[in-house]
Amino acid sequence: MARWRIMIILLLFPGAGLTVATAGEKTVMGKSGYPVPRYVSLAKNTVNVRTGPDGKYPIIWVFKKSGLPVKVIAEYKDWRKIVDSEGATGWIWGPLLSSRRTGLIIAERQPLLKNPQKDQPVAVIAEAGVIGKIRRCRKGWCELDINGFRGWLRQSLFWGTLDGEIFD
């Protein structure tokens, strides 16, 4: 799978006064008023990821793809701690993130179906690494829009939604 970040340096600085949610925990309301954890996407083509929640912390890598989904797992003031599809974590300044929901195809080629059920006709086939807009999710399926082509895909076959998440 293509890597959307460039490693620069890895240093760990503990944060203080954070709103944090980890795997297995329930969703909590972050200081921003939005739930944590939640998925968002990158609003810019170049986004620095830092070791801590401030511009003075070192950059550990740079994302180079607008629209890439990331999961917010903590908040501190205007900063969001994120995890990417490969499990790496770091801090991003909030205005560099968008509430627009996107999904990243993580497995090999995936057929997106015309309806959210097995054995449906294929609407479009997406390669691993492709990013699509998530239009809605229900009963373990999500409708994705990939450059104007729409189809349904099991939530487990792409990265960008919480387990069992439902939305329209």
Q: How would you describe this structure to a colleague?
A:
A hairpin with an 8-residue loop joins strand 6 and strand 7. This protein has two domains: 96 residues, SH3 type barrels; 57 residues, SH3 type barrels, CATH 2.30.30.40. The chain contains no helices and 18 strands. The N terminus is likely disordered. The radius of gyration is 16 Å and the shape is globular. With 168 residues, it is mainly beta.
Low-pLDDT segments = 1-25
Give the % helix. Answer: under 10%
Beta-strand segment tally: 18
Given the helix and strand composition, which structural class is it?
mainly beta
State which percent range the strand residues make up.
over 45%
CATH homologous superfamily caption of the largest domain = SH3 Domains
Total of domains: 2
The description of the largest β-sheet is: 6 strands, antiparallel
Put simply, the count of helices is 0
Distance between the termini: 29 Å
Named CATH topology of the largest domain: SH3 type barrels
Give the CATH class of the largest domain.
Mainly Beta
Shape: globular
- Give the overall average pLDDT: 86
Shape-level CATH architecture of the largest domain: Roll
Question: What order do the SSEs take from the amino end to the carboxyl end, as H and E?
Answer: EEEEEEEEEEEEEEEEEE
Rg (C-alpha, Å): 16 Å
